[in-house]
Each structure stands twice: as structure tokens, then as C-alpha cells.
Amino acid sequence: MKRATILLATVAVPLLLSSCIVIPIGDLLKRQPLNEEILVDGEGLFEKQKIAIVEVNGVIRGESNFGLLSSQDNSVTEFRARLKKVQDDTEVKAVVVRIASPGGEVTACDIMYNDLVRFKQDVEIPVVSCIVEQGASGGYYIAMGTDHVVAHPTAIVGSVGVILQSFDLSGLMEIVGVKSEPVKSSDQKDLNSPFRPMTSDERVVLQKLVDDLYARFVEVVDRGRPELDNEKVKSFSDGRVVSGESALELGMVDQTGYLADAIEVARVRSNITSPTIVHYTRPGGSPTRLTAALDDTASSGQGLEMNLRVPQFNTPKFYYLWRPGF
Description:
About 35% of the residues lie in helices and about 20% in strands. It has helices spanning about 1-20, 25-30, 75-85, 105-125, 140-145, 170-175, 200-225, 230-235, 245-250, 260-270, and strands spanning about 35-40, 50-55, 65, 70, 90-100, 105, 125-135, 150, 155-160, 165, 240-245, 255, 275-280, 320. The strands form 3 sheets. Strands 1, 2, 5, 7, 8, 9, 11, 12 and 13 form a 9-stranded mixed beta sheet that branches. It has a 3-stranded antiparallel beta sheet with strand order 6-14-10. The protein has a two-stranded antiparallel sheet with strand order 3-4. The chain is elongated, with a radius of gyration of 25 Å.
């Protein structure tokens, strides 16, 4: 009997192995398509008049995340996909950009801002932004591309500025007995290296870069707040963050309110009587924090979170970002 069992196993195992299911890894890595989710169903028998909510959540990044069995678009491609979804739907009569972001990478923020400006030119529908938790630095930068800015009274707004984090680990390396000896074509080829102190000449070079990027930020804010003169814009463009209430007093936003207020502004500007409110989700993605009641009390700031390991030796970047301690 024992011999028969062993013989059966010897025959069965190869058969099982030969009939195994092959799952294409490429299919697992494909990004799921965006689906429209109706939050409020408006009137209209034959055609809906929609207001689409496009979300900008978490730290803004220009790189994609990849896992063993999944991939995640970066902030730029995700934002573009949502704008494209709106652009392809003629029933959408207005857009509300819901912002819950402390900002992020300079170039990613600038691309998203530019995409929004181009979208407005191409589609010619009202675009209103609503800062529900924080619209700081790059988050505020993107809001400047909209027609009207609404900020939650307790939202964190501002932080107009640029940061490049720099570390000097030479003292630590000396303690552990490690020394960096790069072979380079010129003195500044390893600019901002964490393995040695920064020279005064190198600081001048990096400061010039920061100043250029800061000047662009101020220019974007100046363009987005046409009722303010340049000196007024510069007066709050010193990196500070303020509440939504203070942002209104400074002229940084058009009004304080909630997501429902931003939707009402979009409704009036698009001359809609009974709008259908929609936004976009992906199958298997993180559960949305938007509800049919349009509740702003919950933050979705973790939606596009970026891993900010310190230090990131291989990818030093400039940030339009408000993150104390970063």
C-alpha cells in the first residue's frame, strides 16, 4: 500500500505541474482604467450636466511607484488622466480641483499647473479649486491655475518658496572610517554631495537655482492673483503658511468655504440648474474619502504619498514643499 501511494504521487505531481496556470505579469502591472463615480445625481432625462471633481492628494511627485504585483502612476500622469477623462466627456460643464497637498517636486508641480492652464484654454469651462486640508507650496502653485480659489477656513495655505535639502555626513563617515574619493571632471561635478562640506562657491550656484525657481513661483502667484500688485504678492511669499481665514485677508484666495461652496461657485459660473457631481476612481484603488454628502472633514492627503527617505543621496531634488523637519 505504501509503495502504491508513492507511485501515485510520482505520477500526479508532474501532471499538476504541467497544468499550472500562467498569469502574465504584464497584465498585473497594467494601471486599471478610471471609472466615473456619481456622488450626487442631478436632474436631466437625456443628458446630464456634470461638475467633475478632480483630486490632487498628498505629496506631488514625478516618479512612478512599482511593486511586485502592482504599479502606481505618478502625480503628473494621474492628474493628466483625470483631465483627459473630463475633456472627453461633453456633459462635464465645470471642474472643481480638490486640493489636499503640501506640494512636492518643483517640476512635477509646474507641469501639473501648465496642464491645468492648457486644459482651461482647450475646454473653456469654469475651473474652481478647493483647498480642503492643505494647499501649501506646490499645492497652492497648482491652485493658481484655476479661475477661483476656495479655502477651508482651517486649511493650511501658502508656503510660497523653494527648498533643496542638503546633508553633510563627512563627520559621521570619519567616525566610522569611511572616506569618499570621487573621480570627477571638475570641482563642482559632485555638487551637493553629502560626503563632504559644501564650499562657498557651490552654495552660490545652488542658491541661484533656488532663486530662479522661487522667482517662477512668485510669477505664477502674481499671474493667478491679478487683483494683487507684485509687492503684495511678495509680502506673503516668504515661505510662511497661514490659515484659510488669513489667506482670505491677504488676498491669497477668493473666499473661504467648503467643497460644497466650491461646487456652488462652479455651478453658478457654468449656469447649471441641477448638476450631477462626479469624480473618478480606479478599481482596486484606495477607498475614496469623498461621500455623497461631500464631507470635507476627512483628509485624503495620503493618496499619493511619496517616500521621503533622508538622505536621498542619488536623487537630490528641488521642492515646492511644506514639510517641517524635511
